[in-house]
Amino acid sequence: MVTAVHGGALYLNRPRIMRMTEIPKPQQFTNIGQHSLVPTQSLVLMNDEFVAEQAEHFARRVVSQAGADREAQVAWAMRIALGRGPPDESRITQAVVFLESQRQRMIDEGSSPDAATDKALADFCRVLINLSEFVYVD
Amino acid sequence: MSLINRRQLLARSGGAFGSLALSWMLANDRLLARDKDDPFGPRPAHFAPSAKQVIFLFMYGGPSHIDLFDPKPELDKWHGKEIPVFRKEDAFMGKTKPYAMKSPFAFSKCGEAGIEISDQYPQLAKHADEMCVIRSLHCESNNHGPALFQMQSGSIMSGHPTIGSWANYGLGSECDELPGFVVMMDYQGAPVNGAMNWSSGFLPAKYQAVPLRSTGEPIAYLRPPAGVSSSRQRGQLDLIAKWNQQYAAANPDDDELEDRIAAYELAYRMQSRAPEAVDLSQETKRVHTAYGLDNKVTAHFGRNCLLARRLVERGVRFVQLYSGGNEGPRAWDAHDDLETNHRLHCAETDRPIAALLSDLKQRGMLDETLVLWGGEFGRTPTAEGGKGRDHHARGFTMWMAGGGVKGGKIYGATDEFGYHAVEQPTSVPDLHATILHLLGLDHEKLTYRFQGRDYRLTDVSGNVIHDILA
């Protein structure tokens, strides 16, 4: 994670989520952007409320576009987040296993079956946002 | 990575030569207990170390050696007169004069060894017999940016790994749940060059420092969002790790992808351990008072010194604390008014540093913890404007304590004006070679192959200062 490209006027009053990233300093010129990769940045994507909210929004969008079928949800969500669908069947299988086990966890923790289904999909969307493939530009 | 790396090589051939040459290290059960594939795990040193960890107290901006640790009575005599050693090209600012400026501070001989320390460091002075004062440092730039780069990485150019990264690359981390290299900034902000001061350069990214926040909770986002249980998060992380590994395998030339997986795992473990490590409420009121947390002037640096002690106690290898941030008078960069500037920064750091040394000693940790004090250069014996001093790279002071260095020792000397390092001149690579030596690392053997050649922290120079080793 890396360098945010658009620092601009936000430099002095950055949103919480941006405070762990390097951003260009308007008063300094440089031939190459500052770069860092530390566990505290992983903590942001793991634990920030904004990321959680966006994952929930994304999950609702997945349901509205791909319907209730899990395999279709996985394929559509991956295509939107990563610009490509699942590379093979095994990814879909792994994702569906994940959705089911997260759903079961949430039920064990007291969620209703419907709420657990929603939360599991939001968790999958959160996983996508945390992937190297999402974070890094190739 | 298609090539075998150093770690894999050591793991695979460990039985062959590790058990002979490094048998002393095998006593370390922690090392044996650790997973060989743990990318942050400990690695054997080249020889038995005297220091396990380093606390680098970085006085950013250039503290004045001649006003703190290297008194020059000649400056009183020459005050206002042109000194013969001054060279215009050594000055950074055009308005710097060739006229001597006497120190506004008084010195006294401290401890049994009689080391001279400025009256601005009265608490620290009580530790004179633990200090090894190196009065003969010199560096290659009188400009903050390049001089910082050199003090951190050996090179005045950016892009090279910093010393804390080298230490962690060489030795790994003793602690599963905290990063091996941590920096803490001044309340005034980061020094110039920002994160490049603790960059891992061309070493793998996992060796760069984790900065702790200077105010509030030291580490942000240590807790999962409300309503997310640890097991639910573990489920997410398992899928993230699995897919990140597949992605890294498909992109073998990008070692940062593997480091990113390691960063996630460390982040997850930090959630369990770090809140306790950075919780200063666990310390007694007596400790808070000793570090100066109850005083507005000392509270910030005191907090960082206390955090540093807690971190090294838990196995963090290299901690760097900054006094002074941003630029100009907010750092030790006393261009305009040396007396006011150094009075403030000494007051901010004196009690916390003294408390840190006492605390480490009391806990039996000073012997294995190298404490290092210094900035990127010193200051001119001549005046800048009326009351300031300019940057000075030709001679300056740093001191060390603990970690296997002699206490009550003065090493090297500047000339009678404090201008040139003339006796036992000590380059930054000499300093770096010595720090690595104390950590059990041979600076000529600690190499990393990059762009077709083996790089060292000390590049092609550096001599261990054997005179200061206990």
Question: Would you give an account of this structure?
Answer:
The complex is a heterodimer of chains A (138) and B (470). Chain A has two domains: 8-43, no CATH class; 48-135, no CATH class. Chain A is 59% helix and 0% strand. Chain A has helices at 39-47, 49-66, 70-82, 89-108, 113-130, 132-135. In chain A, α2 crosses α3 and α3 crosses α4 (89-108). Chain B folds into three domains: 1-33, no CATH class; 38-216 and 280-468, 3-Layer(aba) Sandwich (Alkaline Phosphatase, subunit A), CATH 3.40.720; 220-277. Chain B has helices at 6-21, 29-33, 65-68, 74-78, 122-125, 144-153, 163-171, 230-250, 255-277, 285-290, 296-313, 338-362, 428-438, and strands at residues 53-59, 96-100, 107-110, 115-118, 131-138, 181-184, 210-212, 318-323, 369-374, 378-384, 388-392, 396-401, 409-411, 413-414, 421-423, 426-427, 448-450, 453-455. In chain B, β10 (378-384) and β11 (388-392) form a beta hairpin. Chain A binds chain B through residues 16, 19-20, 22, 25, 34-44, 46-49, 52, 91, 94-95, 98, 101-102, 105-106, 109, 123-124, 126-127, 130-133, 135-136, 138, and chain B through 179, 194-196, 199, 205-206, 208-211, 219-225, 228-229, 231-233, 235-237, 239-240, 242-244, 247-248, 251, 256-257, 259-261, 263-264, 266-268, 270-271.
Q: What's the domain count of chain B?
A: 3
Residue ranges of chain A: pLDDT <50 for 5 or more in a row?
7-12
Label the structural class of chain B. alpha/beta
Indicate the proportion of strand residues of chain B.
15-25%
Query: N- to C-terminal separation of chain B?
Result: 42 Å
Number of strands of chain A: 0
Q: CA-to-CA gap between the ends of chain A?
A: 13 Å
CATH architecture of the largest domain in chain B: 3-Layer(aba) Sandwich
Which residue ranges of chain B are poorly predicted, with pLDDT under 50 across at least 5 consecutive positions? Answer: 6-37
Mean pLDDT of chain B: 90
* Radius of gyration of chain B, taken over Cα atoms and rounded to an integer in Å: 23 Å
Helix/strand/pairing category of chain A = mainly alpha
Average pLDDT over all residues of chain A: 84
CATH class of the largest domain in chain B: Alpha Beta
> Please, how many helices of chain B?
13
Assess the beta-strand content of chain A as a share of residues. under 5%
Largest sheet of chain A: none
Percentage of residues assigned to helices of chain A: 55-70%
Q: CATH homologous superfamily of the largest domain in chain B, by name?
A: Alkaline Phosphatase, subunit A
